[in-house]
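quick one, 139 residues, struct below
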Amino acid sequence: MSLLSAEAEISVRFSEVDMLTIVWHGHYVQYFEEGRLAFGDKYGLGYMQVYDQGFSIPIVKLNIDYKFPLKFGEKAVIETTYVKSDAAKLIFRYTIKSKTTGKLIATGETVQVFVDTQGILSLTVPDFFLEWKKKWLSN
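---
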C-alpha cells in the first residue's frame, strides 16, 4: 500500500511574521490546516464532505517540531500524509519545507476524532469512513 499524501504551497505574508521577520510559531497550525484542506480536496475527505455524513472532526492532539524559521516572503510546501489507524480517528503527519531554500522547516502530527451532530464522540469508525478506507487504502 502506498502512502496517501497531498501538498499545499503557501507564501509567508507580512501579517504572519514578528519584528524579526520570522513566522510566529502559532501560524504553523494554520499551515497544517492548509495541508489538510489540500488532502481533503485530493482524496474526497474535505470538512464539508465529512459534515454531510453527519460528523465533524475536531483536533484532539497537535504536535509541532520546529526545525528552522520561515521568513517573510518565503514560499513553503506543506506535505500532509495520512497515517493508517484502525481506530475511529484521523491521524495526519506534516512536513513543511521552504520552497525558497529547500530547508526542513517543521514537522508535526494531528489527531482528529469523529463527533456527531449532537456532539457525541463516535467510538466506532463511521460507515462512510470505512468506505473511504476501502476506496483509498485497498491494495
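The radius of gyration is 16 Å.
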